[in-house]
Write a structure and sequence with these properties.
The structure holds two protein chains of two kinds. Chain A is of the alpha+beta class. Chain A is built from 18 helices and 19 strands. Chain A folds into five domains: about 5-100, Uridine Diphospho-n-acetylenolpyruvylglucosamine Reductase, domain 2 (2-Layer Sandwich); about 110-225, Uridine Diphospho-n-acetylenolpyruvylglucosamine Reductase, domain 3 (2-Layer Sandwich); about 230-340, Alpha-Beta Plaits (2-Layer Sandwich); about 345-430, Alpha-Beta Plaits (2-Layer Sandwich), CATH 3.30.70; about 445-490, no CATH class. Chain B has an eight-stranded antiparallel β-sheet. Chain B has a five-stranded antiparallel β-sheet with strand order 5-6-10-8-9. The two termini of chain B are about 30 Å apart. By secondary structure, chain B is of the alpha+beta class. Chain B has three domains: about 5-90 and about 415-430, Uridine Diphospho-n-acetylenolpyruvylglucosamine Reductase, domain 2, CATH 3.30.43; about 95-215, Uridine Diphospho-n-acetylenolpyruvylglucosamine Reductase, domain 3 (2-Layer Sandwich); about 220-390, 3-Layer(aba) Sandwich (Vanillyl-alcohol Oxidase, Chain A, domain 3), CATH 3.40.462. In chain B, a hairpin with a 5-residue loop joins strand 8 and strand 9 (about 175-180). The chains are: A alpha+beta, B alpha+beta. The interface between A and B is large, with 94 and 88 residues.
Chain lengths: ~500, ~425
Amino acid sequence: MDSRISEPREPHIFDAGIFEELREIVGSRGLITSREELHTYECDGLTNFRVLPRAVLLPDSTGQVQKIVRVCHRDKIPFVARGSGTGLSGGALPVENGVVISLTRMNKILEVDLSNARVVVEPGVINLDVTGRVAPQEYFYAPDPSSQSVCSIGGNVAENSGGAHCLKYGFTTTHVLGLEVVLADGSLVHLGGKTLDAPGYDLMGVFVGSEGTLGIATKIVLRVVKRPECVRTLLAAFPSTNEAGAAVSDIIAAGMLPAAIEMMDNLAIQAAEAAVHANYPDCGALLLVELDGPVAEVAALMAHVDEICRKNKAWEIRVAQSDSERALVWKGRKAAFAAMGRISPNYIVQDGVIPRTELPNVMREIGRLSTEAGLRVANVFHAGDGNLHPLVLFDRRVPGQEETAEALSSRILELCIAAGGSITGEHGVGEDKKKMMSKMFSEPDLETMQRVRCAFDPLQLSNPSKIFPRPRLCGEKPGEYVAHPLETAGIAERF
Amino acid sequence: MDASVSAKSNASTFETDVRGIVTAKHVRTAVASDAVAGARPSLVVEPGNEQELAKVLKLANAAGLAVIPRGGGTKLEWGNRPARADVIVSTARLDRVIEHAWADLTVSVEAGCTIGKLQETLAKHGQRLALDALWPERATVGGVLSTNDSGALRLRFGSLRDLVIGVTLALADGTVASSGGRVVKNVAGYDLPKLVTGALGTLGVITRAFFRLHPLPKETRTISCVTGDVPEAHRLVLAIQNSKLAHSALQICCGAEMQPRVDVLFEGSEAGLTAQLEQVKSMMSLATITDAGGDVWNARQGICSAGKQSKGEVAVVKFATLPAQIAETVATIASLSVPDVPWKVVAQAIGIGWARLEGKVSTIDSVLRELRAELERRGGSLVVAQRPAGMTDFDAWGPAGDALPLMSAVKWQFDPQGTLNGGRFVGGI
């Protein structure tokens, strides 16, 4: 079975008539068709894939999204929903002869209900603005991807975004309680809600993290969390990632669940220093451990963490007490990806997960592969949950180096799979990693996942050709199975 | 051929084939105690591993036989009466803890392992699955996942959807598929572990699961406070929720024949607990603080267990309401029940509660209808876990809303013939 089985798209559908019809829905300001303007939307945060969409639509209501999607469904036009476009796996990459539906105009916080710790938002609302809105009452929205000052909640829902503090607080999926979704045929469904455990399948649980392939979320019910009584951040300098990794294992083994444990290796520290002058010690590996909760509890645990770090040869330990000290400690970490620009003309951001105990082995192998390829690799980790962000540094001007870097980056993911981990912890599969899916999952695994896809979007119009290396042939409408012509002809097999 | 003759011959061929897969020793004729909500299957099959289980499902599916998956059988009455019941496929022999990767705080376990056995294994390394399921000595991993059963610890650690990180499923057509994995943080592919959590075995049989684990707490303290009425108990709960205390569980226990009581659980270090206990006591009236001990956390199981039925028939329901509407919900239950239906409620601060009603079938029936309508009016829901024999047609789930067609489509994709637990789930799925 291959992608050619899906109905051929009909580019000629994009005549003046269809643009006119779309303009009537969203108005002139809501429709982009000029080539220069379309270029803005040709990629997301992963810039090495670029596709020009036929049009970009900027709806400002659920009703408009439904109308657009109904037109797409009628004419079999594939569509890609887009939030702020900060994704790192090409999830918002447009598809050929398709349209992009940008949700940035749907940016209202619709309801703040703190007596129930719920906030209802439109998908274009910026992550950090949710916290901003409830901060005066000492609540916060927990998922905190590094891009939180620009990324949208709709995009977070699509990618099931994480962040440094998901070690303790969980991912986007933990904090989304309800969704209003426009399905690929334009119909509207409500999944979950303001109360818990709605009867029926947890389709919300499947939708979050489905990377825009199951429909478009147009309204999102979030859970917000009360701020802890105190927050303390410890910064410890180690001779190498081995000692830092051992300290992480000891912290976990001691029965603690810090709010965050982050690690940076020497190269990452150098880059962060060059970029934001976080005043980090120059060392082989740096650990940030953040504890939060009641004052007495945090004080007791912090003493224990300090002891564990010293036992594992930490030679400098600082504890940030005030918010401004904390902000400075985090500044270097949050800027780490962008900081690579200071030490290398180009770089690839990788995202893999390993069982935490495999860290020394995987680090050693990354080191070996890096030497072999003759390219530097900087490492930034969410060390508490084994989420690695190796940054492969290269120079595009040197012939062949980009290919070498890509190959190295893929080899690192293979290491993660071999160690029993995952090809992505928070950036998603998108366009970038769909080929890796077959290395992580068997064919029946992938076929089974796509049964969900077929139930939501049998025509595969919503962000098609993402996540799965090979699209599955969907059966006919529920109730009666009718063999697909290709199947009868023996060309395709139904699973 | 006459349909009943055909079904009979299918069934006998099936039985022969199944003996070939799991050996004769593990196939037996069903007895009265194997009945499921009044439906009596004919055969009980106990596969020895996940491949055998998948083959049994495939055969049943091909023979057009209806399958009821069964773990420990503790919650088999939940859900609606099955439309058909031919074969019970038991996971009893899939009972291994496959790997406790304690340094990674994860475990992989077979579906038929009991929660009790799992916890015992995990405790050897000072860890736990942070879940207080009903009847842990008999309830299995697969059954607990399929019924989405969680208790008071959910406030701190989330429910099963937050704890399960991977599953392996056997589908009706014999496909064995895995999703998720053994690492906590993982966004590769669709999150099928969440899809099958609470799906009552209607999409596939869970054969294996990976969970994230938590350390066993160093110290725990429970503090309880008896209040004058439910609104007072609720005000205390809301104040605790709105404070910066780091409690692990918080519930209200109340009933027709008891004074409302608020229970708070703290877990952590000695130093941390002492300070928090002082703080929470300052929120309570000192005269009403009781030292009820850790047993109060068995209240939900008490409500759900058979126990003595002093006032006739029994119904047990789970309700979902907004956290700020717990007192109103309890008031509704009380006003509907008075005077001839004694009731008991355990309500968790997050807005999930369990209620037990005793009385005449006709009264229980009308109370539940009105209560469901009232809860739905406020955006909540009511699910019936246990009901009197005379109420077998009372819908366990209530409406699933505008997503029902989508749910049916998912069911059709996974189990087009309705082989697995047909008719037991929402909207007749």
